[in-house]
Amino acid sequence: MFTLVLGVTASILGFGVLNYSPAASRHHGSAGAAACTLTGTSVGASLTLTGSGYAANTSYAAAFQWPNGTAGTLAGNSDSNGYITVLTFAYWSGTYHASVFTTGRNAQLMASCSTTIP
Asked: How much is the pTM?
């Protein structure tokens, strides 16, 4: 799993092709329509990315930047209504940033959001 996270992160940053969808997929959501919200309450608690306006039943990549300077990517799938939820944890105090990208060749940024954990 650690290798996948680093590989996907490198791909999003332009070092390769972002692809962890075994079949080609069409993304009918648009970056203008998609939105995300990142919420968390305290260090050690859940950090939740939610969003709407995504293509139904589609795989996405949620790229996170943590306050300690590291980054990682988690997979997220939209439901039949185009809603996405990705769960992780807030391990440090500070500002967390998340960006949601399409998967496959020519990954596109769909939405970005952030939150600060005290």
From this structure: 0.74
